[in-house]
């Protein structure tokens, strides 16, 4: 118990030291002594938060279980630092140029400042990090318990409190040094200094334990090597798939873990610090991994069966009575755990407050107002709350997961989760074609596959997913088995999950990006990210007002067109009392310009474009021009499309009308044919019947024979007439008829018509022959045909007891004349007056009637002669008016 008290005292002293260092660093920063604080060495040491308690304790456990596989966790970042430093350099450059505050910020800014992406990445980061924080709390608790000599089970009551105290302490420290001030660059001098110190402590502690194990316990390097050879680890076999998968995973996580992003990019003071880090950090990792195998081998050999290998770093010195060394080791583990939690909490709280809390708050409370003093306090407050919540969530996870699973497993699940950011991030940095939709869809896909094939199974079979799901898939869908997606069986579960989540993520990201169209803001951001070295290296070229105005004018011309843009600029210049085209870029003018531009490219783009030129941000004029050109092209293209589509609509309408006409014609044709066959059949039938009687009946009387023969004759005449009429009509309708224009008088034609129609014997005709001395130039026979038809109709249909027909000649419209044929019969009912001019139209089925073609022929003829025929209602009987045009009249009668 005495040692335990000493441990608590040492621990508190150490914490006090950390507070002191952080405090001094903040003070020094305030006095402007940043240079010393931010040396490349400090930067390199701060990267060591990669080595958490998982690495400090867990690596030995990992080695004890799976041999040299633990090395992959160090090889990944080493490869990045050595071979991929140019990726890091680009990340750092973009981070500085864009004032990126977190990985969520980086991804969302790249894709047009997308809020959805920011929220998505933040949520995923929190989900992926919470188990990791739990892991740190667990390791501190376990090591504390081990030190106290209590068994893990007996220590549960205590360890719960230990974890809680650690959580509270960490929260306080993080709030104190992580949210002292709102720094636009999000740099935390105190915190970085403290974790640099912790980096030294943990390396020193691990090396000390290693030296003790090799030289103090095993008798030197040679003996140690022999002992390793003899152990299980010596006969370890490498599994290629897992090896490659793990190296990839740790490399990806090194770039995408929120806390790594924080120290690598956000806290980076100077790009050149990467130079030292590129070799010094791999060296640090190598030293951290140097004694892992010896400690594992000795632990396995010397400690009793069943001892937790995750604690060998602590328990091996303890077992040798080396309390001081064990305390150092405890402090090393403590440092690893705390530095991770602190930086992770800062990184996550920045994301949560910037991308979730503040947008909601601003929308609800301020209606989108700009940041004011009040809001500043609010941001700090929300960060503090977010830190507390993040650590609390880790604690809750620790309490409820029971802390049973091996440390290494949780770490890998977390790594694979955040590795899903990689495609969207690298794509955003190196590929201009990457789009927001692509990034969103890729992330969702990757995260879904990760959850299904890695996160949920990690709780253990039967915990969240039942054994059935592993055997046969959910709802019996075999291809959805978490460890054999799409039916590919037999892979190591870890390799399987990485393979599917990363490849589907990348595939969806690329495919959707190719298939979607970026917004102007996305293009602008994309250009700045991908070509960051072009832009940010160049000194600002437009600092003077005139130079800015010139750039603005060039840009405006491309969007508005030269004439309009120049007019706008000249107006603004003369308003300012200047001559020429270049006004001072004062706010009034800029607002006006923005309004003008937004009509063409949308408000957001206009604002961004003007802001970029005037604000002198790191975008090149060339980029703006490219965007403006693209916009102009797009507008041109869309107006062409509009014209095309109008044309198409017109054509479609014409086609539709033609089609309707054709359909109507075809209906008419069918009706016509059926009418004709009907009309032909009636006379034919009687001709046939009577001719058969004549042929087959013997002894017919001659009177009968004559009667039948005359019927046959009459019917044949009727048939001929019908056919004549039809022919006539079709010739007239087809327009292939030539009018035989001749000179004549109306009187002659009427006389001729009356004679032809039967001379008025059956029907008295009243005429005013005086009026009929009118000279005509027309087809006399055709006009007579019309008159004959009308007179014959009156004869046929006038049903008065004393029928009579009046023919009246009157001056007509436009210098023409009207010839009215009015009888005293009952006429044609109102609703059929239009219809009688149609083919086969008959008012009633009178026996004497014809086929209903007469008036139709009359109408056709009158149309050819340039006049018309109409029914005259309200004349007390059947009344038709034939109108002849002025051109048909000649002066000489
Ligand atoms: P049709 O060959 O049957 O005479 P028309 O086209 O000349 O055919 O006339 C069409 C129909 O108009 C006739 O069937 C008849 O019913 C009606 N009609 C024509 N003229 C008169 C009239 N003067 N009085 C009453 N009905 C008439």
Automatic annotation (TrEMBL):
Q: Which reaction does it catalyse?
A: ATP + protein L-histidine = ADP + protein N-phospho-L-histidine
The terms describing its cellular component in GO are: membrane
Q: Which residues cross the membrane?
A: 6-29, 41-64, 70-88, 116-135, 161-179, 191-215, 243-261, 281-304, 324-357, 378-398, 404-431, 438-459
Q: Which UniProt keywords apply?
A: Coiled coil, Kinase, Membrane, Phosphoprotein, Transferase, Transmembrane, Transmembrane helix, Two-component regulatory system
Subcellular location(s) per record: Membrane
Q: Which CDD domains would you find in this protein's record?
A: HATPase, HisKA, SLC5sbd
Which residue numbers delimit the Histidine kinase domain?
675-888
Taxonomically, the superkingdom here is Bacteria
Q: Kindly report, in one word, the top-level EC class recorded for this enzyme.
A: transferase
Task: Give membrane topology per the record.
Answer: Multi-pass membrane protein
Main location class: membrane
Q: What EC number(s) is this enzyme filed under? A: 2.7.13.3
Q: Which GO terms describe its molecular function?
A: phosphorelay sensor kinase activity; transmembrane transporter activity
Q: Which residues form a coiled coil?
A: 638-668
**Similarity comment text for this entry:** Belongs to the sodium:solute symporter (SSF) (TC 2.A.21) family.
Protein name, entry field: histidine kinase
Please tell me the species this chain comes from: Aquicoccus porphyridii
């Amino acid at each position: 118990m005495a040692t335990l008290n000493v441990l608590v005292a040492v621990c508190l002293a150490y914490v006090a030291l950390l507070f002191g260092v952080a405090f001094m660093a903040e003070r020094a920063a305030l006095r402007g002594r940043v240079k010393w604080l931010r040396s490349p060495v400090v930067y390199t040491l701060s990267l060591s938060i990669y080595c958490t308690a998982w690495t400090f304790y867990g690596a030995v456990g990992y080695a004890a279980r799976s041999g040299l596989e633990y090395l992959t966790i160090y090889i990944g970042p080493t490869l990045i630092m050595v071979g991929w430093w140019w990726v890091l350099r680009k990340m750092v450059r973009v981070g500085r140029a864009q004032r990126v505050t977190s990985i969520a910020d980086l991804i969302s800014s790249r894709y047009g400042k997308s809020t959805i992406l920011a929220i998505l990445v933040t949520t995923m980061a929190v989900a992926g990090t919470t188990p990791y924080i739990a892991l740190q709390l667990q390791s501190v608790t376990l090591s504390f318990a081990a030190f106290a000599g209590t068994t893990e089970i007996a220590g549960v009551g205590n360890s719960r409190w230990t974890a809680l105290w650690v959580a509270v302490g960490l929260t306080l420290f993080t709030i104190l040094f992580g949210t002292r001030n709102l720094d636009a660059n999000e740099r935390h001098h105190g915190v970085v200094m403290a974790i640099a110190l912790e980096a030294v402590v943990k390396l020193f502690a691990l090396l000390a334990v290693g030296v003790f194990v090799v030289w103090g316990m095993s008798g030197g390097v040679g003996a140690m090597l022999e002992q390793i050879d003899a152990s299980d680890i010596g006969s370890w076999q490498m599994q290629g798939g897992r090896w490659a998968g793990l190296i990839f995973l740790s490399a990806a996580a090194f770039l995408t873990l929120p806390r790594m992003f924080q120290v690598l990019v956000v806290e980076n003071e100077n790009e050149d610090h990467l130079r030292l880090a590129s070799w010094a950090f791999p060296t640090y990792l190598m030293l951290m991994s140097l004694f892992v195998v010896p400690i594992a081998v000795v632990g396995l050999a010397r400690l009793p069966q069943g001892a937790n290998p995750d604690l060998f770093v602590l328990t091996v010195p303890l077992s040798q009575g080396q309390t001081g060394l064990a305390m150092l080791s405890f402090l090393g583990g403590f440092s690893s755990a705390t530095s991770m939690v602190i930086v992770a909490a800062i990184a996550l709280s920045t994301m949560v407050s910037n991308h979730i809390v503040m947008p909601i708050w601003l929308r609800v409370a301020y209606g989108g107002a700009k940041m004011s003093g009040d809001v500043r306090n609010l941001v700090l407050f929300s960060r503090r709350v977010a830190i507390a919540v993040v650590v609390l969530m880790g604690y809750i996870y620790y309490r409820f997961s029971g802390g049973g699973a091996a440390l290494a497993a949780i770490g890998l699940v977390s790594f694979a989760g955040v590795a899903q950011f990689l495609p969207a991030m690298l794509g955003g940095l190196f590929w201009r074609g990457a789009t927001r939709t692509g990034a969103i869809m890729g992330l969702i896909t990757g995260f879904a596959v990760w959850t299904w094939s890695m996160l949920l199974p990690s709780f253990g079979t039967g915990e969240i997913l039942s054994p059935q799901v592993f055997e046969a898939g959910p709802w019996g869908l075999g291809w959805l088995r978490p460890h054999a997606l799409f039916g590919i069986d037999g892979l190591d579960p870890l390799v399987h999950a990485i393979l599917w989540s990363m490849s589907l993520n990348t595939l969806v990201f690329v495919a959707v990006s190719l298939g979607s169209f970026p917004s102007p803001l996305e293009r602008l951001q994309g250009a700045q990210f991908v070509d960051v070295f072009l832009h940010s290296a160049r000194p600002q070229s437009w600092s003077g007002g005139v130079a800015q105005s010139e750039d603005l004018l060039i840009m405006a011309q491309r969007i508005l067109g030269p004439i309009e843009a120049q007019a706008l600029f000249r107006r603004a210049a003369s308003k300012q009392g200047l001559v020429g085209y270049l006004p001072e870029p004062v706010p009034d003018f800029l607002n006006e310009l923005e309004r003008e531009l937004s009509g063409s490219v949308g408000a957001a783009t206009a604002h961004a474009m003007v802001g970029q030129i005037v604000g002198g941000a790191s975008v090149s004029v060339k980029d703006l021009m490219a965007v403006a050109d693209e916009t102009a092209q797009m507008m041109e293209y869309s107006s062409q499309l509009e014209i095309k589509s109008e044309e198409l609509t017109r054509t479609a309408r014409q086609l539709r009308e033609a089609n309707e006409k054709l359909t109507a014609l075809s209906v008419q044709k069918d009706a016509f044919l059926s009418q004709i066959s009907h009309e032909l059949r009636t006379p034919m039938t009687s001709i046939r019947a009577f001719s058969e009687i004549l042929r087959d009946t013997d002894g017919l009387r001659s009177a009968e024979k004559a009667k039948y023969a005359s019927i046959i004759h009459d019917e044949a005449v009727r048939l001929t007439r019908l056919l004549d009429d039809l022919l006539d009509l079709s010739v007239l309708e087809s327009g292939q008829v030539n009018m035989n224009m001749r000179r004549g008088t109306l009187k002659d034609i009427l006389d001729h018509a009356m004679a032809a129609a039967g001379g008025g014997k059956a029907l008295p005709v009243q005429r005013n022959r005086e009026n009929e001395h009118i000279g005509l130039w027309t087809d006399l026979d055709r006009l007579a045909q019309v008159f004959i038809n009308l007179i014959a109709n009156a004869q046929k249909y006038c049903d008065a007891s004393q029928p009579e027909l009046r023919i009246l000649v009157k001056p007509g419209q436009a210098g023409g004349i009207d010839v009215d044929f009015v009888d005293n019969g009952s006429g044609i009912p109102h609703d059929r007056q239009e219809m009688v001019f149609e083919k086969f139209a008959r008012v009633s089925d009178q026996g004497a009637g014809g086929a209903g073609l007469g008036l139709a022929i009359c109408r056709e003829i009158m149309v050819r002669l340039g006049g018309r025929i109409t029914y005259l209602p309200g004349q007390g009987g059947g009344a038709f008016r034939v109108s002849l045009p002025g051109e048909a009249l000649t002066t000489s009668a």
